[in-house]
Amino acid sequence: MSTLAQTMMTAARSADSGLAGPGELNRYPYAESPGAGRVGPPAWEGADSELGRVGRRTAGSRGRGLHGQLVQQLGQMIVSGDLGADRPLVPEEIGQRFEVSRTVVRESLRVLEAKGLVSARPNVGTRVRPVSDWNLLDPDIIEWRAFGPQRDDQRRELAELRWTIEPLAARLAAGHGREDVQQRLGDMVEIMGHAMAQGDSLTFSRADAEFHALLIQLAGNRMLEHLSGIVSAALQVSGNPVTGCDRPNDASLGHHARIVDALVAADGTAAEVAMRQLLTVHPEVERVVPAPREH
User: Fold this and answer.
1) Which 3-state string (H, E, C) describes 159-174?
2) Which run of H or of E encompasses 185?
3) pLDDT tens for residues 202-235?
4) pTM of the entire predicted model
């Protein structure tokens, strides 16, 4: 096993045991709630009594402190429908409910406003905006939707979007003979193989995420690279299998290896076909996108 594989596996086991490392992302699991359209008291009256209770499940991974935890909590509540446009979000109420300062509340609402979830206007207050105004490509919103009531729609939409982005990225990447990046991609396949043999799904998923990020980077298209966060988010939220990346198995590993072989051979068509095959390993995806045609 390579030193790189050993390092990634050690880091993954440390994270799984609760020891946070740089760049880690663990999702805060929240319950689905049919709160849309609710009128009356603030939705947080029945929630956890302390923000710190939420923080213990997220602080080690996101590294954003109370501010990041509050953004997560409010964002999830908005996306799940627990907080709607029927009443304004009162900063004082939020601060009292979660026992945080005005500064924390103000900065959290600014982040949510930048994501298109809320808007603040004089004499109107801060209110939740309609879904059509949300930045649906924001990785946080992708994550919140994928673990809320809209999970099925979100995962289907992600699968469709990946079908559009990644085969093109694979074809373009084959035209850029970056041996260093190709070697790194090969390393990721090796790590996935070792992880699968050891039943280490966490290391497998991390190597998989890096593989896809590197591939989009290798494509040499800055606009595609700008969308790489979508692919990363899709891999992070793959709770129910929607693509061949979601479960460590021989078929998935083989398709990854074929993509690398096609890149080394500078065969754009083969790289594109292999990526489409990877994204349609599971029957669930074949209902979303057609099976790839052989060229």
Assistant:
1) HHHHHHHHHHHHHHHC
2) helix 179-197
3) 899 889 989 999 999 999 999 888 888 778 777 7
4) 0.67
